[in-house]
Please model this.
Amino acid sequence: MAEKTLVCILMGSDSDLVTMAEACKELDRFKVGYEIHVSSAHRTPGRTIELVTQAEAKGVKVFICGAGAAAHLAGVVAAHTACPVIGVPMPTLHLAGADSLYSTVQMPQGIPVATVAIGKAGAGNAGILAVQILAVADSGLAQQLKDFKQDLAAKVMKKDAALQEKGYAKYLEEL
Ligand code: RP5
Model:
């Protein structure tokens, strides 16, 4: 059976896809259904609002928005939905993503955007955060998240054990 679409990912440009794919990968990991669209707050403002309305009608519960530079997409989406909105600031050429970060995070009181880190780590975390939001009402997802964290911890422990065994120089050679 096809997964229900619970998350809607919007990005301002297809040039954002290389970053936003990290959010897709995390949602795939947890088998959470999502849709992903290119839609810009500035270039296609009407279409953006239409996508938000359609997504809500389909049962979407969380929006993830990635945009760069004068990054107003997450804020505009948040203005049009009562669902949680996660903003992912894109890295940029001229200001290294500080422009995207500030324009995504500095929302006026009343219209929150949960802003994650700039770039791929932020996009991946946006996917995980969306799963965490959904897991509040889904014990199966909550268990998957616990397993995921245990797995992360086990990987770090394994690396430390190898570092202790080999010493830093050999470890570095094999990195
Ligand atoms: C933003 O402008 C997009 O989110 C993208 O990060 C940036 C550049 O877009 P392109 O000129 O590559 O389409 O709206």
